Each structure stands twice: as structure tokens, then as C-alpha cells.
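Progress narrative, Year 2. Work on Polymerase IV protein from Candidatus Amesbacteria bacterium GW2011_GWA2_42_12 advanced from sequence curation to structure prediction during this period.
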Amino acid sequence: MKTIMHVDMNSYFATAEQQANPYLRGRPIGIIKGRTGLPAGRQGCIIAASVEAKRFGVKTGSTVWEAKQKCPQIILVPSDMDKYFALTKRMISIISHYSPTIEIFSIDEAFLDVTDTQKIFAGGAWEIALEIKNKIKIEMGEWMKCSIGISYTKLLAKLASEMQKPDGLTFLGPEDYLQKTQNIAVEEICGIGMARTRYLHDRGVFKLGQARKLELPPEIADLVWLKNEEQLTTVDDLDPAKSVGRTFTAFSMLDTQSSILKLVRNLIEETAAKLREMGMGGRTLYLTLNPSPNLGEGHYTKTLKDPVCDPQVIFDLLSREYLKNPVVGIRKAGVNISNLAFSVQRSVFDKREKVLRVVDEVNEKYGLFTAYPASLLGGELIRPEMTGFLGDKWYRFGS
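Result:
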């Protein structure tokens, strides 16, 4: 029987800010996208809440308005994804000392298979878990905490880590896991999303113990009986990215072609920089614009013979497609580059390739958008955001 461990950093983004700024420690804070002043209205969204804010009922996904109603003293802090990812790399470095088999599940979660390595420790998996907790505090900061779950499957290990927060350590064994989990809410199970939760709630089922008394579809029954035995997916099991993209929802309506194209240029700059960083280019260019209701929707695409990673080339091609059938009044834009390939010649013009290389070197040293196109002057730059699910794990962590 395997021994799987799930390490889950507690209130990760918020705790990282509290670690970096002692003034924020012990105070309710909410992490938001962008600058503090921009999304402070009803439309702003809390992407992470501190332990203190959660005690007032503030949750991830709450609007800023809702959060202030529940917790008037909440402090809004703009997100800093570079900071969080730097801490994630430290976490991975710590846990990699305890197992060669690791699945990086998201920016703040990882699974370890300690079936064999636990034999090295007198206290087995418990000793490993306690050491990891201690090293996280020493190497990541005294304010950083994690909850760890131990069991014999991924699903049970993840559930165990959720049962004691913050700073918990829970074991679910084959002899008692059904009893210990009978009062767990069905929506807490990884794999039971909104549709399946609705299906169960419509039948008067809210806890796992209740669900186990019903005849359910196999795909739901396996989850409520916690039978999933999915294997860990290590970086070596992953494939290179099939596409690279960036979406952004504006804080206010963009109702002119020039403002829309400026946003698109910004998104393309970030997407193309990521392609060059990965040593890749793409053949299929895709732009989607989401206007307000009843104004239609804009989809623009261009497929090339050879892959490109030059932002000016990508922008010129997509902007021409856009101007053939422009839409205005948009709130959301997305750029996606697919049909990727390695070892791409950056440009047919040698001088242009040298310029891009210098730009990349400057931005790598000082941060993306230290050097950027003059066409983006005169407005606020949209900075890169890294999602918590780390869709580019193969590139970030592969050998």
C-alpha cells in the first residue's frame, strides 16, 4: 500500500504578504489583482484572503464590496505573483529532499509519494511531515504555515490536508477513513464541482455520509466513497505546452478601437515574451474580444506557414484581422498562440532579432515591461499574472 502526502500552504498569497510585511501580520487582508485603488468597487474580486479575514466570512471570489461589508477593516493588497512563485520554488526545494516522486498540483500544493523514503525515518511519514513543516518556517519564513494530509491515495491525502487548517497534520487510514469523513461537505471533495454539488443538493444530500446511502452514478459514487486511486503526475510525465495565452478583464469598458488595440498589444507583448523564454513560436494566432451583452463577440484568427514569436509581427497580423470586422465596448480580451514549435528563428531581420534579445535580457534582469514598445506609453501597463494552477509546469520545472 502506498503512502501519499499532500502539502497545502495555508492562505498562501495572503500569508506571503504578511511574511513580507510585518505590519500586515494578524490583520485581515484580501489579495486583489492590480493596484489597490482600481478594483475597490463592487466589481473588484478577492483572489485570496488571510486567515484573519476568513474568520469574518471573507472567501476567495468575494467581491471587494462584499468583503468590506463583512469586514470593514480589511486591508486590500495587490497581488505579486513573482513573489508567490519564488516562495513556491523554495517549497518544492524543501519537499524534494523527502521523495523523488513529486506532483506539483498548483502554486501552493504538492503531492509526495513517500512509500519508500519513509523507511529511512524512525517516525516514518509523520516525521517527514513534521520536518517539512519546520523547514518551511525556517526557509520560507516564520509566518508561513502548511497543512499536511497523509493517506494511501491522492484523493484521501488531499482531503486529509483540508480537515485541519491552518497548520494541521491529519492521517486517514484504510480502517477509519469512511467514519472520519462522513460529515465532510460533498463540495469539499476534489472532483465534485458545481454541477455535481447541485445534483446532490437537489436530492437533499449535503454530507458524504448522506451521499453514501444513495444509489448514485458511478462517477459520483466513486468520489463520495473516496475510491479514486489516480497516480501522481510528475514533471517527467507532462508534455510541453500546446499553447500560450493571456486574458484580461478591464476595470472599465473599452469603447474605442485604439484603446482595444492598445490592450491587445500589451497582451501580445507578454505572450510573445513567454514564447521566446521557452524557445518556442506559434503558427496559429487567436484573438477573442468579449463585449457587453447584445453587442456580439469578436473572434479573430490567423494561421501561418512558419511559427513566430515576434510581438510586432503577431500584433500586425491580428490587428489587421480585427480591423476587418471591429467590435467595441469590450470588457475582456484574450490572446492565444498555438501550434507551437521549438527552435524558432525570431525574425527574418537580423537587427530585429538582436533588439528582441536585448529587450529580453533587460526584462529578465529587471522584470517584464522594464523595456516595452513605445506604443504602450501613456497608460497603465497590464503586468503578468501567473495562475495558481501553473499550466506551464513542464517548462518551469522540467529538466
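The chain has 14 helices and twelve strands. The longest strand covers residues 330-342.
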